[in-house]
Amino acid sequence: MPVKHYFYFNQNHSDRWNGGKLDKEKWEELRNDSEDTVFSISESMSDYEKSCLEATEHQEAAAIMTEEIKANNWQNRRIISMGAGTGKLEWHLKQQNPQLHVECTDYVRSSMDRLKKVFPALDDAYEFDMIEGDYSALATDSVLVFHRLSNEFDPDQWRTVFSKMKEGGVKDIIYTPCEALTPILALREMLVHIKNRLLGRRDTFCGWMYSEKELLNIFAIGGYVVRKSRNLHRTKIYFLQRQ
Q1: CB contact at 8 A, 174 and 144
Q2: What is the pLDDT of residues 40-86, one digit of tens each?
Q3: Pick the CATH number of 25-180+213-242 from 3.40.50.150, 3.40.50.2300, 1.10.10.60, 3.40.50.300
């Protein structure tokens, strides 16, 4: 079964939040943080581009996706990234494929507004709620990208998302989960959480960690089959197709 995932951001965030649960308001605070962190979107274009260039794993993921986009003749599709956050993966997609149509979505509107200012090559960026949103509006000539979002929702919520995508007519999905859960990783998560509490750190509940078997089950129940997968460090990029 999935394991709860906690993260200690820093004293300015997690301690002030008294731990708590990562929600829309907290994400907005992180994305607009004036400090340069892996979670924030830089205010200047030069600083933003520098942070993207340093994101080498995003660059590798974009290269793999580019190969599959070309192999499947998806160059004329809308590549819509769900929960894009800082947009670093999408920046690399546009660097590697300037002609590719790339859109970013997130449920924090201010993040998308800031992203458009520092990432002018982006074709569009807008607010979209993955649980409540209308996927039929995204389904036409598109490929939906979910990059490292698996922690965001519990199993029932993910089943809802996949069910709504299928009902909305979404055909193709590129899904990269966070690090796949293993017994060793589950133990590490528990020990880090206990250590933080012993040190007086109020780490924040950030969602759920899944094993590969659990994710494959969610895909299948939602009506999607894994057409292909590619390795990416301690995870995989799954190329899903509606059954």
Answers
A1: yes
A2: 999 999 999 999 999 999 999 999 999 999 999 999 999 999 999 99
A3: 3.40.50.150
Q: From CA 224, how far away is CA 241, in angstroms rounded?
A: 5
CA pair distance 16, 11, nearest whole angstrom:
7
H or E, element range at 116: helix 109-118
Residues 6+ apart with CB under 8 A from 67: none
Element (H, E) at 60: helix 56-71
Looking from the CA of 218 toward its CB, the CA atoms found within 13 Å total 23
- Domain segments of the chain: what residues? 25-180+213-242
Taking the whole predicted model, whether its pTM rises above 0.85 is answered as yes
